[in-house]
Structures are given as structure tokens and as C-alpha cells.
Hints:
It is a single chain. This protein is mainly α and 56 residues long. It has helices at 6-12, 16-23, 31-37, 46-52.
Amino acid sequence: MVSLTPDEAAGHFVSPFIARAYGLDAPVSSALTRELLGWSPRHASLLDDVANGDYL
């Protein structure tokens, strides 16, 4: 893994917009979706799936 400066990232990710979007530290939550839509997940979490999934 290599760190890039913002200018290097803009060239690597095709545009400065995409570079900035990938560089954001934006934690997310499903709380609003769950509340508004009454939604709840029915499958394994991402981390459980990665740890136990069969991808071959």
C-alpha cells in the first residue's frame, strides 16, 4: 500500500473529484434507513461474510 498526495491521487483516480471522494473519512450508519423504512439486515455482516465466506 502506498500513500499518495492529493495531486498524485487526482491523476491516479482519473479526476480530482473521485480522488477527494475516496479520500473522505465519512463514517456511515444504517440507523436512519432502519428507522424510516423499518429495514433490518437478514444476512451475515460484511466482516462475518469475509471471515467465513467461500469465494472459490
